[in-house]
Write a structure and sequence with these properties.
It is elongated and about 130 Å long. By secondary structure, it is of the alpha+beta class. The strands form 5 sheets. Strands 1, 2, 3, 4, 5, 6, 7 and 8 form an 8-stranded antiparallel β-sheet that branches.
Length: about 600
């Protein structure tokens, strides 16, 4: 009963609102309407007490009110249709009108200091640390990041306006990007190499970046790809420490500023200048977990439209392949293979012939971060020759999303986008990615992100099990801090090694162990157990496989094994792919227990 009364009360309220809107329409569009009310009242008085007009007056009033109400409803329908038409035109129009973004910059200023700046500073600081490790100049022996803050001044977006446009079947937004700040603080501590020697404090206190920014929504709004249309204009100002914090004057470090500018330009070129794009994920849920690595299964299925004529994209390649011109003319005899590369790990498929080779090769790959780039290099192989030529490449980027899903994206045809989203670990996705810088050709792959490893020692597991054992490898961002435990590592077996007399070395902290050498065996079985004292600080287990030889031991690959999430009483049986070699995997059994 109460529900029925509330429903009827709501209907009365809606009717009253509609009547008031109608009266408002009459008063705005019919200026004589108040006089009509007065005239109706006068007629009613005359009809009541002076002269009877029978029923003509009520009928005339009813007819007039019905006519006016019909006009009012027609105007409402016209307005609704106009709004829908504008929305449709906005969706299908290739270019929208130029709009200014003062409101966006005002909003950015309000949320920059307490929300955006801390998030971007944390994200970019990890990127800078990684780039500094791999791009040190020869005059710096060691460098570390001590402070990173982007300051209180946000970049300015769309100062000259912004617009949406259609690029093929995808909608993109273009806007100007202008960032000129003088209150940022990026502090680096450097130990200089010979002949300079000494220490230096390097501070970046201002930066200028100006370019044209391109935004592309993907996957129905689950993410936005962003990049610069061309190389942006970059300038930075570098200051140096003084007094006891620095042993060399700044005049003896003239190359630091140019090195940092080159490092920043190279980073932008490789990650954020068309056609390279980075991704901002927009998950509905944030689980607030920081991914430190993961396990990825990559299956290279096939390629299509592989043509030697189309692959020879430039003069340098034509000159390089001139010795094999006669071989290339026979299209059906073109033999190719694909090399899959993820950071330091690479694997190769078998060689297949024809313009549509099919490999169906599956590889166990390792992610050492929350993001990664899978590169696929297509090579031509020649019968009876040890040489092979690089034909073309393509790449797929992947990223951990805050709701524990995975986002993949790649460069599509005509600079478009190929994107997929795996809602949970273990979901298989298939991508058809065109080869870059060639006229035709595309690669079909399937990807499965089996599990994520998080910095809080937890793991995100899936129900995908390609075999009887699981796989685990990666960089450890933090071990269990309890030092009263011991870790048991059993070197079980290996397969696919490139050497015939292998042995394995393990290193954890300052402790070292090695197995015995297995003679004339590329698939050895050791079943050798070693024990390590668990350390307080974050350490990973370093594994290296060698081939014993009279003239010096040859390294057969290595790996870093994450010990995150080890639980007492639970044995983890894992296959680890060896890095920096074409093939080889090592099986370990990991266990943890309390010390007696």
């Amino acid at each position: 009963m109460a529900r029925a009364r509330r429903k009827s009360r709501g209907l009365y309220i809606n009717k009253a609102k509609e009547f008031l809107n109608y009266l408002n329409y009459l008063s705005n569009n019919k200026p004589l309407f108040p006089w009509m009310i007065v005239l109706i009242l006068v007629g009613w008085v005359v009809e009541r007490w002076v002269l009877c007009f029978t029923n003509f007056l009520p009928l005339a009033i009813a007819f007039w009110a019905t006519y006016q109400y019909g006009n009012h409803q027609a105007q409402i329908q016209v307005q609704v249709l106009e709004r829908r038409w504008r929305q449709i035109m906005l969706l299908v129009s290739p270019v929208t009108p130029l709009e200014h973004c003062e409101w966006l910059n005002k909003l950015l200023c309000e949320v920059w200091i307490n929300f955006i700046n801390p998030k971007l500073s944390f994200t970019f600081s990890s990127m800078v640390e990684k780039r500094l490790k791999h791009r040190k100049p020869p005059f710096i022996e060691k460098i570390e990041l001590q402070e990173f803050s982007l300051g209180s001044c946000p970049p300015s977006l769309g100062l000259h306006g912004t617009r949406w446009s259609m690029f093929g079947d995808q909608r993109i937004m273009q806007m100007g990007f202008d960032w000129d700040t003088t209150d940022m603080s990026i502090l680096l501590a450097a130990k200089l190499a010979k002949p300079l020697m000494g220490t230096a404090k390097i501070c970046i206190n201002s930066i200028h970046i100006k370019g044209e920014l391109v935004l592309r929504p993907i996957l129905d709004g689950k993410g936005v790809l962003y990049s610069f249309l061309s190389s942006p204009e970059v300038r930075i100002n570098v200051a140096f420490g003084s007094g006891g914090s620095q042993s060399l004057p700044a005049t003896e470090l003239p190359c630091v500023s140019s090195w940092l500018v080159k490092l920043l330009n190279d980073t932008l070129e490789k990650t954020m200048v068309e056609p390279r794009r980075d991704c901002l994920s927009l998950p509905p849920v944030d689980l607030r977990k920081e991914a430190a690595g993961g396990i990825l299964y990559v299956k290279v299925i096939s390629a299509s439209k592989v043509s030697s004529a189309n692959m020879k994209a430039g003069p340098s390649r034509r000159q390089q392949n001139s010795n094999f011109e006669g071989y290339y003319n026979v299209e059906k005899d073109l033999c190719t293979f694909v090399e899959v590369e993820l950071e330091q790990l690479s694997r190769k498929t078998d060689v297949r012939s024809g313009s549509s080779p099919k490999w169906d090769s599956t590889f166990n790959m390792v992610l050492h971060d929350a993001t990664g780039i899978l590169r696929f290099h297509l090579y031509a192989s020649f019968p009876g020759s040890v040489k092979y030529n690089h034909l073309t490449s393509c790449e797929i980027k992947m990223q951990h999303v805050a709701d524990d899903s995975v986002m993949y994206w790649a460069l599509g045809y005509d600079n478009g986008v190929v994107a997929e989203h795996a809602a949970f670990c273990g979901k298989e996705i298939e991508m058809v990615v065109p080869f870059e810088e060639v006229d035709s050709g595309e690669l079909t792959v399937r990807l499965i992100l089996k599990e994520w490893h998080f910095s809080d020692c937890s793991r995100s597991l899936s129900s995908f099990h390609p075999g009887s054992t699981r796989s685990l490898s990666g960089s450890s961002s933090g071990l269990t801090s309890n030092t009263r435990r011991k870790i048991s590592v059993t070197v079980v077996e290996a397969k696919g090694l490139v050497g015939s007399d292998p042995y394995v070395k393990l290193q954890y902290g300052k402790a070292f162990h090695r197995t015995r050498t297995m003679k004339d065996n590329k698939n050895p079985v050791w079943n050798k157990q070693f024990e390590f004292e668990e350390l307080e600080c974050g350490e990973c287990l370093n594994v290296k496989c060698y081939n014993e030889d009279i003239f010096g031991n040859q390294q057969l690959g290595g790996a870093r094994v994450s010990l995150e999430g080890l639980v007492e009483g639970s044995v983890r049986d894992v296959w680890i792919p060896l890095e920096k070699v074409d093939s080889g995997e090592l099986r370990l059994r990991l266990d943890v227990s309390w010390r007696d």
